[in-house]
Amino acid sequence: MSSPVEIPIQSLVQLDSTSKTPIYLQISTQLINAIQRQFLLHGNRLPGTRQMSSLLKVHRNTIVKAYDELEAQGWIEITPNVGCFVMAKLEHEKVRFQPKNASLQLYPSQCGFQFDKSTVLDFPADNEDNLLSLNDGLPDIRLTEVALSSRLYSSNLNRKTNRFSFAQTSINGNLYFRKNLSNYLNLSRGLHISSNQITITRSLEMCIYIATEIILRPKDIVIVGALSYYVPNMIFNQKGVTVKTIPVDEEGLDVDALRVICEEKTVRMVYLTPHHHYPTTVTLSAARRIALLELAEKYGFVILEDDFDYDFHFDRHPLLPLASADQYGRVVYIGSFGKSLAPGFRTGFMVAPEDFILETKKYLNILDRQGDVLMEQVLGELIEEGNIHRYLKKANKIYKERRDFLAELLERELASEVRFTLPSGGLAVWLEFINPINLMKLKESAKELKLFIPQHILYQNQHVSAMRMGFGHINLEEIREIVFILKLAIIQSKLK
User: Fold this and answer.
1) How far, in Å, are 27, 462, 472 from residue 134 at the CA level?
2) Biggest CA-to-CA distance, the chain
3) What's the CA gap between 446 and 455, in Å, rounded?
4) Helix, strand or coil for residue 336?
């Protein structure tokens, strides 16, 4: 039995007077930590309450409370007129004291076990310096009607008739929202679906992941554009499938090139973003849409249609999605709803034949069993009351103004450096550099000028030197400043 004098209490217990955690809990927690990490062993005698209060410079009643907490949890045994003794039985014979000035609250920096590390899923870094930044085409959260969404959320939260339903776990999601969303998609996208043919998820990326898990097996062949969205590519590669690319031109995905592959190999799935191809923003032509559906039926592959920015169109009514013309159940249609709303009021959805939707719910039962029926109720009301239509009409007017202003500045300031085609919709412009340029040097020069360019919007190989430049999240003044910085950065990068 060790003497309490031998235990360096000040090293084991370090109090923080600014913490919101009560002092007695800080003491008991750190002593438990010391026992668990074998700095205090079975049979060690702790200092008495008066001695401990003197060592830690706290009131004796605080120590009494801390010891009571330890005894209640079974870490120590208090014997009246004898002392307090550690109850935990550990194997080591010697007490290992914490090095001087070290904290028991430090968490290990590395795991003590081996695990697989994925290089496939390495995600591009975010802007950590809070600079003026570009992205690949996100909406401006400053335009969101937070007050309306918050009011609806609060109203539903306080509505007594909703309290029971909100407490329920349902992988089917909110039926009211599914009905309104299916009606919304039928009207806006020419679909003919019911609430039983739609799955609600937390995000578009979750839709892609679930669809991949259901449809694909290792070594299956998946076709994507020669330039395509990096997130699905990571998901496909992680699944262990064979990803093959085909060209993308001004009419979208090259269907003739797809036909050649189908004649030679068995293609399991084609992933595409036909409304505005990511990243080049081109729209899949009507003729190619028909040809693609015919190929899917002839060769038996699945079309995973990602309609990530259908709501943003400016010059004409957008072409209807492939899913609206699918007669044979070959298309799984995914998208996001509320992308232009505040981040907490966004959701993903997946449209497919009912037997496939039933399978998706098995995965949701594992990945997102609880869901968010309250938020879905709010989104359903935004649709039913027409607020989402009014908001999108207002927002699209602003986004069109930003697109046109950016195009005007690019033509005036950077006509000798970049070329682009004005997109009919979406929130990004595809800029191709006319002259050879090192895009990594451009990124570095821009950062020196206080503009952050994320690496995932830069595309460079022996055939392409381009950038997907989002404009939705920046106002007119910010657009002006960014184009000016880009002009300087291009000059500086060429001198490096």
Assistant:
1) 48, 24, 10
2) 92
3) 12
4) strand
User: Distance (Å, rounded) from C-alpha 496 to C-alpha 485?
Assistant: 16
Please check whether residue 70 is in contact with residue 32, taking contact to mean a CB–CB distance below 8 angstroms. Answer: yes
Query: How far apart are alpha carbons 12 and 15 in whole angstroms?
Result: 10
What does the pLDDT read at residue 371?
Answer: 74
Are the beta carbons of 88 and 46 closer than 8 angstroms? Answer: no
Per residue in 206-231, pLDDT (tens digit) is 999 999 999 999 999 999 999 999 99
SS3 484: helix
Burial of 485 (0-12, 13-18, 19+ CB in 10 A): buried
> Where does the pLDDT of residue 490 fall: very low under 50, low under 70, confident under 90, or very high at 90 and above?
very high
- Beta strand 458-460 pairing with 451-452: unpaired
Query: In this structure, what CATH number is given to the domain that contains residue 18?
Result: 1.10.10.10
Mean of pLDDT over the chain: 87
Residue 333 inside a domain? The answer is yes
User: pLDDT tens digits, residue range 322-363?
Assistant: 999 999 999 999 999 988 777 777 899 999 999 999 999 999
For the chain, the domain total comes to 3
- 208 shares its domain with 252: yes
* Domain-located, residue 263: yes
| CA proximity to 198, closest of 419, 354, 64 | 354
Tell how far CA 34 is from the center of its chain.
38
pTM for this predicted structure = 0.81
CATH code (residue 469) = 3.90.1150.10
φ/ψ of 199, rounded to 5, equals -115, 135
Instruction: Give the C-alpha separation, 387 to 395, whole Å.
Output: 12
Domain annotation covers residue 101:
no
Two tokens at 73?
């949890």
For the segment 458-463, the average pLDDT, to the nearest whole number, is: 90
Q: Distance between CA 458 and CA 447 in Å, rounded?
A: 14
d(CA 274, CA 15): 59
- Closest by CA to 406, choosing from 436, 384, 431, 369, is 431
